[in-house]
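During the practical work, I worked with a single protein chain and the tokens that describe its fold, as given directly below.
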Amino acid sequence: MLKLSTFGGFMLKKVLLICMVLGITACARQAVTPDFDPNYNFSNIQQLTIIADDPEGTPSHRHIALLLEQALVAGNIKVTDDSNIKLLIDAYVEERPNDQAISIGLGTGTSTRNSSIGIGTSVQIPIGDDMVEWQVIQLDLVDNNQVIWTARDDAKLKVKDGKGRHEVQQYIIDRLLADFPLTTQQGNE
């Protein structure tokens, strides 16, 4: 009888460990998956022009363009005003439903020597506002009006002041440029 309960405790620990690993991996941030023209020779590109797709001229677009320029220059890419290669920025903030909630569970169970019965319920209580803001940035590298590389990423704006927006925008730019063919090639040479 003692061996059976020890085995059951071991199995319970194993099941809890598996649930914890699945929970952590489910919350992990997905990698940015860029799309590009595999036949294009990216090594020929020495310079480009950054164009922010913003008809209103908001400071946020100018700031994102500046962050991009700093990252590209650090990756040995020259940024000019008259290149045939264009890096188009499409950036906006959108509201999405808040997905943060606390789950409270309540359960009861009975157990006899050969069987057990359990009943439970769970209630989710939302945290914060019903809608939250997300910063979305898409980059398109264009040569002769044809997109040769594109990537898009987004992140939740947790702090909505200038510093909070800057940190989220920097985070997205870093993720987008991680597989940017010009900076990754320059870094490998």
Notes: The beta strands are 35-36, 47-52, 78-79, 85-97, 101-111, 116-126, 131-143, 146-156. Residues 36-109+119-188 form a domain with the Double Stranded RNA Binding Domain fold (CATH 3.30.160.670). The first strand starts at residue 35 and ends at 36.
